[in-house]
Amino acid sequence: MTRARGRVTTMAVLAAAGGVMAGIGGAVHGVGEVLQGSGRPDGLFIDSWATGRIASNLGGEPGLTVVPDVLVSGVLTLLASAAVVWWSAGHLDHRYGGRVLAVLSLALLLVGGGVGPPVMGLLAALVAGAANRARRGPARRAQGPADRALAATWPTLFWLCLADYALLVVGSLAAGVVLDVDISDVFVYGLFLTLVLMPLAALAGTARVAATTRTPDTVRSAG
Q1: What is the share, in percent, of the chain residues with pLDDT greater than 90?
Q2: What DSSP character marks residue 138?
């Protein structure tokens, strides 16, 4: 059971890291909107940054907002981003931790937090939900070669997901702002990669937990 708990913990770490990165990414959008000042957006879709290297190298960090004022949208985005970081950092092990993160991520999407950060938050919520189900659910061992093969991919997927999240948030800012390199296309590819990797990680992590859990039946058979 100790090994199984360890697998659940690493799933929770991945979910928390993804949620925190999503909140940081959302905050970048919020800062740009606040700096633009008060004004009515032309429509639902806006560029969070109108000037500077983020505007030129990251496509202006586009997003959408239902708020009729850019400044207010930016303030709400910063608040939603802070809530995403706070919840991800310390509350994902709550029974409804993944669901709350999903709601916060949707709120971030609607107030101007861009597209990438809310999607990252939703995917982190998916992994958090899988971790909580693995923690509470009935223990079973992985059955068959497909389950074992999926479970074996967990360590690789764990590190790939962390690297991809770091690229999307830290790497894109470092390249676009510090190095002054247009990385907008790389960000899009990285986001698509996340859409593939995180659901696979949720499945692989669950299979890994199942593969390292001793059920009453397996204990009796071992005895």
Answers
A1: 73
A2: P
